[in-house]
Amino acid sequence: MAHILISGCNGALGQALVEYILQHTTHHVIGFGRTASNLNAFNNLRFTYTSISMEEAALQWPQAFNAAHVLIDLAWQDLNDYRNPSHLNTQVECHKAFIKQCLQHGIKHISVAGTCYEYGLLEGALHENMPCNPQLPYPKAKHELMKSLELLKQRYTFTWVWPRIFYVFGAVKGRTNFYTALIQAIQSGAATFNMSGGEQIRDFLTPETLATYMAQCSLQNTITGPINLCSGKPVKLIDKVKDLLKSQHSTLQLNTGVYPYPDYEPMQCWGSTVKLNQALLAFKNNMLLL
């Protein structure tokens, strides 16, 4: 049993992660975020919550965090705008400072959420050992943060994992995405739905599977470094959309080609699951060695 410090508990992934840990492990969770939240609804003696921002926590270590053995860092701002300069100008330095605080206070294992956008325009099956060339401030900041963990290993004794999140196809609490826009069009009885050409090949996970993979990869420290959180199955976006329409018995007409393909994504990419499967096996074998 360990005490797990989780930033960004108020986010959709954070809430799902807390729920998973409390239901499927004996670990305690120390959560924190910018505001109070409905996480108290868990009503679990193994869960405590502190209302504090990452910026504040980086400057002054809260006493409530002293029991923590593990950090899972999910917090990040401006995720609705990957081009926002704040990713590189302020956020990455804040997370570096907080992670250093964690190490100075004895935390021995760190997991930080990464993104498949770190790979940039690489195509085909993406492996964790490929050189990254992110195209936007958000993935550039994330990749810089990952590199800082490698440097911190020279000064502190700890293990770290970097779960790289691929594409999510499903409802995400509190966020509007392609899926929720499509569902809204179906449920409202709209006649048409505008989208890109839909020929891009992607690797999709449901939000529930993402939370499970995030928890299991983060709560083991045998398989370390970057780990793709993905299905390993290449699927055309247009096929994914048509499958959803069929399952919903919808006659919604797709206006393909209305929007251009993003210039910061490859036309076809999916993740290798070799390292992911190793990490999931390590979790099942209770391989969190502190």
Describe this protein's structure:
With 290 residues, the chain is α/β, with parallel strands linked by helices. The protein has a single domain (3-167, 206-230, 267-284), classed as Rossmann fold (3-Layer(aba) Sandwich). 34% of the residues lie in helices and 20% in strands. It has eight helices and 16 strands. The chain has helices spanning 12-24, 54-59, 86-104, 137-152, 178-188, 207-218, 237-247, 274-284; strands at residues 3-7, 28-33, 47-51, 70-73, 109-112, 114-115, 124-126, 159-165, 167-168, 192-194, 201-202, 204-205, 225-229, 235-236, 253-255, 269-271. The strands form five sheets. Strands 1, 2, 3, 4, 5, 6, 8 and 13 form an eight-stranded parallel sheet that branches. α1 (12-24) links the parallel β1 (3-7) and β2 (28-33). α1 (12-24) packs across α6 and α3 runs parallel beside α4. The longest helix is centred in the first third of the chain and has 19 residues, at 86-104. The chain is globular and about 55 Å long. The model has no long low-confidence stretch (mean pLDDT 93).
- Count the E strands: 16
Count, helices: 8
Structural class: alpha/beta
Q: Could you say how many structural domains there are in total?
A: 1
Distance between the termini: 10 Å
CATH superfamily: NAD(P)-binding Rossmann-like Domain
User: What does the main sheet amount to?
Assistant: 8 strands, parallel
Reading off the top of the CATH hierarchy, the class is best stated as Alpha Beta
Percent range for β-strand residues: 15-25%
CATH topology: Rossmann fold
Uncertain regions: pLDDT < 50 for 5+ in a row? Answer: none
Which H/E pattern describes the elements?
EHEEHEHEEEHEEHEEEHEEHEEH
Helix content: 25-40%
Radius of gyration: 19 Å
Named CATH architecture: 3-Layer(aba) Sandwich
Mean pLDDT: 93
